[in-house]
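Weekly structure sync - notes
Attendees: PM, LS, DV (DV joined late)
Agenda: review two folding runs queued last week.

Item 1: First target. Sequence and C-alpha cells pasted below for the record.
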Amino acid sequence: MRSKLIQEADGQQTHAIVLETGDEAMACLIEFAVAHDISAASFKAIGAFSSAELSYFDWETKEYIPIPVQEQVEVAALTGDIAVEPNEKPAVHMHAVLGKRDGSTVAGHLNRGHVRPTLEIILTQAPAYLRKRRDAETGLMLISLDP
C-alpha cells in the first residue's frame, strides 16, 4: 500500500491510496485509518480483485449472508466511510459493485477483496467527528449524528 496526501484545506484532507497485487482492501484501509488517526472519512475507489467476499444483510434474520466471488473481477464501484465505534477503533464500511468477465455484476457489503493488479482509492478525511452506535432495531453499527 502506498499513499500520498494530495490536498489539505479548511480542516479537510484528501489522500490518494494505491493498493497493489496481493493487498487485501479492508485490512489496508483499517491499517491506514489507524496509522493516520482517522475518525471520520469517506472514500471511493476503482480497480480489480482476484477474489472477494461480499455479503447481503438479510432483514429478517438481521445477519449478513456471504457472497463469495472466486474469479477476477473489475471493481466498477466501491464506496464507503470510516467512523469511530464506541471502543474508539476506526470502523470501515464499504459497498462494492464488481463486474464479471461476461459483463454481469455482483454487489454488496465488501468483507474482503484481494487486489490484482491495483485498487485506487481517494479518501477524504472530514473535519466533523463521527461516531457509530448500535441500532436497536437492526443490531448494526450505524453513524449517529447525535452529539
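Item 2: Second target, run right after the first with the same settings.
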Amino acid sequence: MQSLNLRTRLVVVAVAALAGCGSSDNERSAQKPSPSVSGDQRSILGVVDELQTASREGDGETVCSELFTPRLVRSIEEAAQQSCAKEVRQRLFSPDAEISVGRDIKVTGRRGAAVIREQNGNVSKLSLVQQNARWRIDRVTPQKSG
C-alpha cells in the first residue's frame, strides 16, 4: 500500500514538474493585484519552475539530485526498485500537463508549503525544506479537490 501512495505522490510531483506555475494572461488580467511575495516564497516558486524545465527536458537526474530531498529520492527508489532518475524519466514526464501554484505559499523557518492544482482538478500540497540555503521538495500530499 505504501508503494501505491508513493506512486500517487510521484505522479503529482511529475505533473508539477511538467506544468507551469501561474495562470494564463487572460486570467491574470481579471485578477486583483496580489500582495508582495517574500524572497522565500519566490524561491519556492523558482523550484517549481525548475522542476517544470527539467521535466520538459526529460532530465530525471536534475529532478532527483537538485529538486527532491534525499529522503524523497530514497523513498522513490525503494518503491520503484530502480534509480530515482530512471523512475522519474519513465513515469513522470508529460509535456502536456498544466498546473497552477496557489498564491498562499507558507514559509515557517526552514519549511515551506505550496498548494498546486493540476489541469484535471487534482489538488496537492508540496512540502519543501530548505537544505544548504536551497529549497527542495520533500513530500507531496494529495488534497481533496474543491
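Discussion on item 2: The beta strands are 99-101, 106-108, 111-118, 123-131, 134-143.
Action: LS to circulate a short write-up before next sync.
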